[in-house]
Amino acid sequence: xxxxxxxxxxIAYFGIxxxxxxxFTCPIWMRSLPPLEMQIFFGxxxxxxxxxxxxAKIMSVEIDYINPVITGLEHVFKTMLNCNVERTGxxxxxxxxxxxxxxxxxxxxxxxxxxxxxxxQESVALKSAGxxxxxxxxxxxxxxxxxxVGELTNMVCGDAKSRLAQYQLSISLPxxxxxxxxxxxxxxxxxxxxxxxxxxxxLLALQIGFSFPGGAK
Length: 217
Description:
The chain is α+β, with helices and mostly antiparallel strands. It has one domain: CheC-like (Chemotaxis protein chec), CATH 3.40.1550. The protein has three helices and ten strands, in the order E-E-H-E-E-E-E-H-H-E-E-E-E. The strands form two sheets. Strands 3, 4, 5, 6, 7, 8, 9 and 10 form an eight-stranded antiparallel β-sheet that branches. Strands 1-2 form a two-stranded antiparallel ribbon. The protein is globular. About 26% of the residues have low confidence.
């Protein structure tokens, strides 16, 4: 499983590697709270912590949103495309640009507001579209390939939505971006993260940001 792990106590816990490599520390808005440090790490799971219960509650809910999207990606690629994906990292986004040239984007509404981006190399887009369209001769990105990427993004988010019924979510129709360094838009006050994957066809990533206008529930 590629899920981001935590323990549900007053303190939120996050998975780390046996040889930890820190990805980021606490967001600026947390620095007015009592001393704390948040760490998310690569690899197998031990634990790091957040020391403030309010911050713990926010991050606990955010992880509850993100893990089903990861699971949805793995499930859809395996069952629909017969392709296994492997998570290779996790970190805060350094800018609001799509990681790869072809990206499907879906907005999330409900108790939380978010944006989910499935970004991939052209090779992954072509292979995915080829399987979905039963076409072996796709060699360039065209409207059919972009439509297939949009539908793939829709399936990933639909799978995640089914696992998040308690949050009463709605999902938008997918939008597609094609090109290098396309700018992404996430909800205000969100902390978008990037979750890269690899598969036999190339590289892809989930880029996800959520905010909770009414606070964590």
